[in-house]
Amino acid sequence: MKRVFLIVLDSFGIGEMPDAIEFNDVGSDTLGAVAKNEYFNTPNMDKLGLFHIDGVKVPSKVEKVEGAYGRMTETSRGKDTTIGHWEIAGVISNTPLPTFPDGFPDELLDEFSKRTGRGVICNKPYSGTEVIKDYGDEHVKTGDLIVYTSADSVFQIAAHESVVPIEELYRYCEIARELCKDEWGVGRIIARPFEGESPDFKRTKNRHDYSLVPPKTTMLDVLKENNFDVLAVGKINDIFAGKGITGTVRTANNEEGIERTIEHMKKDFEGLCFINLVDFDMVYGHRNDVEGYAKALTYFDTQLPRILEGLRDDDLLMITADHGCDPSTESTDHSREYTPCLVYGKNMKQGVNLGTKDTFSDIAATILDYFDLSASISGTSFLKEIL
Questions:
Q1: What's the CATH code of the domain at 136?
Q2: pLDDT per position as a tens digit, 25-82
Q3: Residue 131: inside a domain
Q4: DSSP-derived pairing of the beta strands 352-357 and 68-72
Q5: Which of 211, 243, 259 is a domain's end point?
C-alpha cells in the first residue's frame, strides 16, 4: 500500500530565481535570511539534504545525507500561492493571474455592494493587520465591508465577527467569487474575519479561501479518477476549490497541521496526503518577522522525527514550497525564489542530488509515476533517480 506525504512549507524559498528582477525581488533569499537568526536550528532537514541543495549558502553539519534533495524552478508567470500549488500539481500557468495595484474597478465593487447590501471601504493594496487598524472603527460604525488586495491576485474581505457573522462573511465571499471571473478572475477570494475592541483588533482563525478552479487536469484529479485517496490538510482544499480531493481537514496553524498529518499517517489509505503549513507565510513572512519565521522552521524541524517515524516501508515524504516570502526585505509580499525539494523513504537511495529541476511540476509527475499512473500533465518524473 503506497502513500505519499507532500508537505508545503508555505513561502519557504531558498534564493532568488534568474528572473527575480522582473518581479522586483533581486536579492530575495528566505532561507538565507532566517538562517542568520539565532533561533534558527534545523538539523533534521539538514540530514535530508537542505543545506546541500545547489545555490544554498548555509553550511551543512552532516556528511551523510539521508534523503534526496534538489532545487525547484517556478515556470509559471507568478509567485502566489494558487499558481505555486497548481504548478506543484502539474499545471503551469503561462499567464499571470490579474492583480489590482490601484484597487478594484468601480463596476465590480458596485455590483458586489448591490449583491451584498453593504458598502465598501478601503479598496487598496494593504497589509492585513494594518487594514483593520486603519479601517476597523469605520467598519464597526457603518457595517461597510473592508475590501483590500495585495501584490498577489487576491480579493480580501475583512469584517468584525460581531458586525458580520462568519457564515454571512463566507456568503459574501461566494458572491465575490461569482463576480471575479475573466478579467477580474483573481486567484483567491479570502475571508479575513477579526474580533476585539479598537485599537486592539485581532484577526481570528476563521479565515477561508475561495480559489479559482484549476484550468487543467491536476495530479489530484488523476489520482482520484484512479481510485486513490487524496487527503488535504490545511488550505489545500481551498486552493484547488475541492477539485480532486477525497477528504479534507482544516487547520488553524502549523502545529495543528503537523498533528493532523501525523494522525493521517496512522490511518490505512493508499494515495496522497497533501499538506500546507501556512504560518511561515501568513504569520511571519508577510509581517517581516525574521525571528518568528526562524522559530517556526525550528519547531517544524523538531517535529520532523515524528513524521519520519510514522512512515511505512512503501511511503514517500516530500517537502517543498510554493514561492518565497523573504521576511528581511522591505517588501511584505511574496518573492520570486527557487524552492527546496526534500524526499525521503525507507526504500529510497540516500544522498541523491537532484540538481535544479525545470518546474515544480516534476513533483506531480514523480508522484503519479510512483503510483504507476500516466497523464498529460506538465513535469518530468525523477522517480528513477531516487529509487
A1: 3.30.70.1250
A2: 999 999 999 999 999 999 999 999 999 999 999 999 998 999 999 999 999 999 999 9
A3: yes
A4: parallel
A5: 211
Cβ distance 85 to 281 under 8 Å?
A: no
Rounded Cα gap, residues 231 and 247, in angstroms: 5
State the Cα–Cα distance between residues 133 and 146, nearest whole angstrom: 11
CA distance 167 to 82: 24
Mean pLDDT over 271-287 rounds to 96
Q: 291 and 162, same structural domain?
A: no
| 3-class DSSP assignment, residue 298 | helix
Task: Output the nine-digit C-alpha cell for 185.
Answer: 478572475
Statement to judge: residues 75 and 174 lie in one domain: no
Q: What is the mean pLDDT of residues 271-300?
A: 97
DSSP class of residue 284 equals I
| CA–CA gap between residue 109 and residue 172 (Å, rounded) | 12
List 272's β-bridge partners, or say none: 4, 230
Comparing CA positions, the residue from 77, 47, 52, 50 lying closest to residue 64 is 47
Residues 6 or more apart in contact with residue 174 via CB below 8 angstroms: 210
What gap in Å lies between CA 170 and CA 165, rounded to an integer?
9
Instruction: Determine the distance from the C-alpha atom of residue 148 to the mean position of all C-alpha atoms in its chain, rounded to a whole number.
Output: 20
199 with 221, same domain: the answer is no
Asked if the structure places residue 100 within a domain, the reply is no
Residues 332 and 222 in one domain: yes
Q: Name 12's Cβ contacts closer than 8 Å, sequence gap at least 6.
A: 30, 31, 280, 297, 321, 324, 339, 340
Distance CA 197, CA 98 (A): 35
The last residue of a domain, from among 186, 211, 236: 211
Structural domain for 82, as ranges: 3-95+214-386
pLDDT tens digits for range 237-266 = 999 999 999 999 999 999 999 999 999 999
Is residue 88 domain-resident?
yes
Domain count, the chain: 2
